[in-house]
Task: structure prediction
Amino acid sequence: MARGLRGGLRLTAAVNRTGRYAPSPTGTLHLGNLRTALLAWLYARAQDAPFLLRVEDLDRGRVRARYEVEQLADLAAIGLDWDGEVVRQSTREELYADALARLDADAALYPCWCTRAEIREAASAPHGPLPEGHYPGTCRRLTAAQRAEREASGRPPALRVDAGAARVTFTDRLHGVQEGVVDDFVVRRNDGAYAYNLAVVVDDGAQGVGEVVRGDDLLDSTPRQLWLAERLGLPAATFAHVPLVLGGDGARLAKRHGAVTLADRAEQGESAAEVRGRLAASVGLAQPGERPAPEELVARFDPDAFSPPPSGPLPGL
Ligand SMILES: [Zn+2]
Result:
């Protein structure tokens, strides 16, 4: 029972529903990306909340400026808008460096020299069946001599957090109660680039994002990010992990699945409004063939009742 404070007056903290979409400019957005963006926008707008756009361009080797221009144009073409300036992660490295310094001061970091192959090998060793992609903590347990040997190798280390296999529980809007064990994940790669999990947590905190809506392929990353947010003293966001669009073969949507971008659809004679209608219909927000305006979709969207079908192909594609 909610207990009233001060003579029965019930105080409710204002819930922050500020949303965001955060594409990486490493390719053209496909219909699955566009549907996730549309849903993130709908969650925010249906709750009268701000919607932010953040360009995740830290992976310098893969980022192309022309993709950013194209991605923003495609998002606008299907009727999405955003508040304030577009934020680029490449301009925010001081924030990430500051977060790392705070973690370091808190003795929460250690260097890791392991190669991918070494991690795979260690993770498949008989003594420790770890969840896929989990790091077994090899470099946390190095002796002084082993550490000195690795330091002398000249190979630059990555930086990992010492998460102590923390257990994190959270409630996802669409997936219900989730629990995960946090492994010692990378926060700075050995090429010096800040890792996705660090940047996303720092940015969501700094930008005041209250509700993260993204593809359900990131559901497994959420315990790490919640752990890190808490460690950095940032408020925890709420989450809605939405289904992915798959190709007809059940794999994640990709170029090889045919006409999967807005430009491809335009070549087939399908307008951006028709694509928006198709995306909305695929999650039960429109009838097949219907072309609701963005405002109409906002009016229809109920964040508390939205219940999309699981990941799958787009009907009729
Ligand atoms: Zn290591």
Summary: Residues 1-8 have pLDDT under 50 and may be disordered.
